[in-house]
Specification:
- This protein is an alpha+beta fold and 362 residues long.
- The protein is 58% helix and 10% strand.
- The chain has a four-stranded mixed sheet with strand order 2-3-1-4, with helices on one face. A two-stranded antiparallel sheet has the order 5-6. It has a two-stranded antiparallel ribbon with strand order 7-8.
- It is elongated, with a radius of gyration of 25 Å.
Length: 362
């Protein structure tokens, strides 16, 4: 039972904070008209949910975090055959890869590449597990009440539809993609998750220090006094804590401090144990702990390592300065290296947490 409570506390804390983080990406994307096909509570996998406004909201079996599937974030150059391939599939409604290739006068490989990119755009539904061949479908549409009143009709998935203007159809889909946004909008979308994490933490600090208050002991008399401070002082305290976390993270890149920084850090095991301890201490302490973890999650996501937000932002800056697109191959290589570094760091911290909290040897 103790282990179950510990796990539930960790799932609640990490699930909520990662969900908040992804919520930032979702809100920024939708504010700029970028399509988001899924917004899930839990790690990617089988899910259940409901489609609202073209986005499927739901849950997955592993409730440890969340994700927002923002369309058009695939790296590299676009396929030159997207426009005719999109029009061909929409006219057919449902078609195999070979049918589309024949319609457009391109190779099967070129059709496959374009179709898969359109799947990433949310403009096409990819093959189902029950499909015998590479079968693609035009998506179901969800017009708003206002659009329905203006004569815009709903389409079922896989239903053929008229395409009077191929270019207009292509533009209507392209403008809903992340890659269609200017640099500043893409930057806001990338950094919105971090901003929401820090905003949550600052709000929590204001609630704790300015609304609820905290106990301090008079060193001369030993008397315990309950005090509150003004919102500006609470915000200042929050900024000081954020600065301390930034300094600690920078320590990961300093050979003389990296060992101490890793030793002072904790993995999911430590977060689980600490989550339970803070929750048992009371709601105020639990809120304070969540604020601290939210800051850490936000700052760690700023590290210039793909696939973190900071890494993708650095790539956006590089592309803006040089005018050159980073290839999918280069992005995949950087992502693998980044994941390798984080896996190594995770294993080291996991080992020290097991020694510290399980065996008491730390």
């Amino acid at each position: 039972m103790d282990v179950l409570i510990t796990v539930l506390c960790a799932v609640f804390v990490l699930g909520l904070l990662v969900f908040i983080h992804e919520g930032g990406h979702y809100l920024a994307s939708r504010a700029f008209g970028v399509r988001v096909t899924e917004f899930m509570l839990g790690l990617p996998g089988p899910n259940v949910g409901r489609v609202v406004g073209g986005t499927k909201f739901g849950v997955t079996p592993i409730l440890l975090g969340g994700y927002a599937r923002v369309c058009g974030m695939e790296p590299g150059e676009m396929s030159p055959h997207l426009q005719p391939v999109l029009a061909s599939l929409y006219r057919r409604g449902t078609a195999n890869m070979e049918d589309v290739a024949r319609d457009c006068g391109i190779t099967d490989d070129e059709a496959y590449e374009a179709l898969e990119e359109l799947v990433e755009w949310g403009s096409v539904v990819g093959p189902l597990k029950t499909d015998e061949y590479n079968t693609y479908r035009a998506p179901q549409t969800y017009p708003s009440k206002k659009q329905l009143g203006a004569g815009v009709r709903a389409w079922a998935q896989g239903e053929p539809r008229d395409v009077p203007d191929e270019h207009e159809l292509y533009l209507s889909e392209y403008t809903q993609q992340y890659r269609a946004c200017p640099f500043w909008k893409r930057s806001v979308i990338l950094l919105a998750g971090v901003a929401v994490n820090l905003l949550f933490a600052m709000l929590a600090f204001v609630i704790i220090f300015s609304v609820i208050g905290y106990d301090v002991q008079n060193t001369a008399t030993g008397e315990i006094v309950h005090v509150t401070v003004g919102p500006l002082q609470a915000l200042y305290a929050g900024c000081m804590y954020i600065g301390a976390v930034i300094q600690a993270v920078i320590g990961l890149f300093n050979p003389s401090t990296v060992a101490q920084t890793v030793s002072d850090s904790t993995s999911i095991v430590g977060i689980a144990v600490l989550s339970r301890n803070y929750f048992e201490a009371g709601a105020v302490y639990a809120l304070q702990f969540m604020a601290m973890i939210s800051v850490s999650l936000g700052i760690m996501n700023l590290l210039p390592i793909p696939p973190l937000d900071g890494g993708r932002f650095v790539i956006e800056v590089y592309q803006k300065i040089t005018g050159k697109a980073v290839s999918a191959k280069a992005m995949n290589c950087m992502t693998l290296v980044g994941m390798g570094l984080f896996l190594l760091l995770f294993v080291v911290m996991l080992n020290q947490d097991i020694q510290r909290f399980v065996f008491g040897n730390w």
